[in-house]
Amino acid sequence: MKVVFERPKTLLEKPFTYCPGCHHGLAQRLIAEVIEELGIADRTIGVGPIGCSVYIYEFIDVDFVVGAHGRAPAIATGIKRSLPDRVVFSYQGDGDIAAIGTAEIIHVANRGELITSFFVNNAVFGMTGGQMAPTTLLGQKTKTTPLGRDPQVHGFPFRLGECLSVLEGSAYIARVALTRPQFIRQAKECIRKAFLTQMEGKGFSLIEILSPCPTNWGMSPKEAVDWLEEKMIPYFPLGELKVKGCNSRETP
Amino acid sequence: MEKILMRGNEAVAEAAVRAGCRLYFGYPITPQNEISEYLSFRLPQVGGVFLQAESEVAAIHMVYGAAATGARVMTSSSGPGVSLMQEGLSCLAAAELPCVVVNMSRGGPGVGNIQPAQSDYFQAVKGGGHGDYRLIVLAPSTVQELVDLTYRAFYLADKYRNPVEILGDGMLGQMMEPVTFREPEFPPLPPKDWAIRGKGSGPRKWVVCLDLDPKGLEALNLKLQRKYRLLEEQETDYDTFGDPEPEILLVGFGTVGRILKSVVREGKKEGLKLALFRPITLFPFPKAALFEKAKGVKGILVVEMNLGQMLEDVELVVRGKVPVFFLGHTGGVIPTVSEILEYVHGLLKEEIRV
Amino acid sequence: MPRARVVINREFCKGCALCTYACPRGILVISRDFNSRGYYPVMVTDEEQCAGCGFCAQVCPDVAIAVYRE
């Protein structure tokens, strides 16, 4: 029989530590598949976040560094500047990348740092128990917005991808979801393009992955996927936000 | 060997390059900007990397990333900037990553001012950030010693896999003195087989600064404590100067050390039996040597450009066996030789009441 | 003989059931026996019906499903 789908070898053979229905595992599977297909596992270095996916280094079979909350882009910069021929990626949640680490991600993008960042947006702080994140939707109830997010008090959900797109140094930015097989195929293609953007020296690349958090949203996995499609995608539209064809280092 | 007239900040930068430092990440802050300015042209000459970060927070985490690859890496800053780096320093200590941090400290607290001060002693020596960790802290008192300790800083960082802080001050950074770059010979270091460089054909590795298992985290802490004890046994360093049997032992570090040297000389002319004890390693603190040196003296006078920080470590060493006095200025006010001599005369006149 | 085969890693499966909604033939259900971690993993009811499209494996967040086809 032909293989339709098998677990990629670059994803280590152990069960994920995530809640049922959480898409961290799916996102990491796609990253592992692309690394495997590009044949770069031997020279790829991942930088983990602080959050639910702090244990990403337990799952993808490449070298890893994990530091402080939100600082992965700076750590990745240090690694890449030290070893320019390695493929370096950061993997971060919304609190990590779009709250405490906002300065680091903006400047890594603006420098056109040759790294790839994966931004898992589930609209809450997951590991700490479901508090408001910068990406929490208006009216969305969380542990710290019990009456729903009020823009008068908390401001607006943060569209990081769009924000980074206007910077000269960013070369490829896309937002994806993993709620349907068709979306998953598109997401994998975007992840591949992001790594290639880095490897071809075009500039910074970021993939924002909309992800359900059934546990902290108080929903079943299926309800969470439906809520993501109904509520999150209209505010965080899917697609390629920026594709820079030319080499940003050569063309100012 | 050729002597070159150099400013402290430039000398530390040149020494770092000669010690094999190939990456520098920093953020501008007075009074240490000449370090980054110098390295911005010097590092590219040797194929190294100079990168101005968006903040001290980013700079120290860039150091974390580069250190994880096994490269010799450095940052520098002053008081407020080093405060911002504490998060990263705690992580570097936990992950046991070697790096060198230069603090040309200035007046605090708060934004304070840009004048020389030693008020970052507690921050440097007692850990500084969260958790039970220490930095190796070296305190040079001349530009030449700044050069020599920079070589040693990179060696100790690699040998013990620990961040090293060179604690200078604005005066040392800005002062110009003749220096020679004597490349010291250190024993060979073990290979950095822990470095993260992509797994290649071998097994994968990771560097992290967390352990969610209580027993695992306690084990890491105990390992760090063993390292700190080893440092105390093997790496403490200090300088002494003056009368072999002093009545008053003067204790001061860094810039104050050189002022106290003049006090010893001037005091001798006035018939005073004085000696200087100057810790060169602030962590590990030279406890045993100070304890020996304190035997038989009438009193110890600690002089600092703060309001009594190393004083606490001196008191811990002598444990009430010898009276300990303190003279300090802060905020950029520098103790003068005549002022200290006057204080010493006063102590001796009053026959030192305990 | 079935035209396709679905292999479920019962120990990796957390019973989120997302695959049961993704399956066009509706042949995946949550089983009644829990695994060693206390989850009720998914199972195939009628493998003869499986077309081997692989949608279940694609959407599985725990990468617990492998699919083979003639």
TrEMBL record, chain A:
It comes from the Bacteria. Keywords: Oxidoreductase. The keyword Ribosomal protein does not apply. The keyword Oxidoreductase applies. Residues 58-209 form the Thiamine pyrophosphate enzyme TPP-binding domain. GO terms for biological process: cellular respiration; small molecule metabolic process. One of its GO terms (molecular function) is thiamine pyrophosphate binding. This is 2-oxoglutarate oxidoreductase. It comes from Candidatus Caldatribacterium californiense.
TrEMBL record, chain C:
PANTHER family: FERREDOXIN SUBUNIT OF PYRUVATE:FLAVODOXIN OXIDOREDUCTASE-RELATED, IRON-SULFUR-BINDING PROTEIN. Pfam families: Fer4_7. Residues 4-33, 40-70 form the 4Fe-4S ferredoxin-type domain. SUPFAM superfamilies: 4Fe-4S ferredoxins. The keyword Signal does not apply. Keywords: Iron, Iron-sulfur, Metal-binding. InterPro entries: 4Fe4S_Fe-S-bd, 4Fe4S_Fe_S_CS. It comes from the Bacteria. This is Ferredoxin family protein. GO terms for molecular function: iron-sulfur cluster binding; metal ion binding. Gene3D superfamilies: 3.30.70.20.
